[in-house]
Amino acid sequence: MNSLFILIAEDDSDDRFLMQKALEETGKDIKIKFVENGVELIDHLNETRAQENGHYPGFILLDLNMPKMDGREVLKNIKSDSEFKKIPVVVFSTTKNQMEVKRCYDLGANTYIVKPVNFDSLVETIQDIHTYWLKTATLADA
């Protein structure tokens, strides 16, 4: 599981574009898959599980406010699944509300990060996330 593969759930096309550019700026060879809502994310994980040599992401970068199934519902689904719960979930949201942060941790989020307000900070944050989850942390095999 500790691969250079990130699954990013983000419904806003501008944010997806900026995240793609920020990942490119880090200079890391990172494979990413974008999904636009929680249903697509869960579908992707289920499709991966069905493959004989399915490869789960090193971590999931999860926006909270998405259509069809929001990030809170996704988090609850992932962390209640015996196989998916091993995948680290980084909540990546504009919401700074402490009750929301606590709620996400209660649902099983591994980390909660407030989205940076400018591109340089986004690049730095993506670099930090990459370094921690794909290089520093020791993760259980999914």
Number of structural units classed as domains: 1
Helix content: 40-55%
Q: Could you give the distance between the termini?
A: 6 Å
CATH class: Alpha Beta
Tell me the strand order in the biggest sheet: 2-1-3-4-5
Please state the structural category. alpha/beta
Do you know the CATH architecture?
3-Layer(aba) Sandwich
Q: What percent of residues are in strands?
A: 15-25%
Question: Could you tell me the mean pLDDT?
Answer: 85
Radius of gyration: 14 Å
Mass-distribution shape: globular
- Tally the helices: what do you get? 5
Short synopsis of the structure:
With 142 residues, this protein is an alpha/beta fold. The chain has helices spanning 13-25, 38-50, 71-79, 98-106, 119-136; strands at residues 5-9, 31-35, 59-62, 89-93, 111-114.
Describe this structure in words.
This protein is of the alpha/beta class and 142 residues long. It has one domain (5-136): Rossmann fold, CATH 3.40.50.2300. Helices cover 44% and strands 16% of the residues. The protein contains five helices and five strands, in the order βαβαβαβαβα. A five-stranded parallel beta sheet has the order 2-1-3-4-5. The chain is globular. The mean pLDDT is 85.
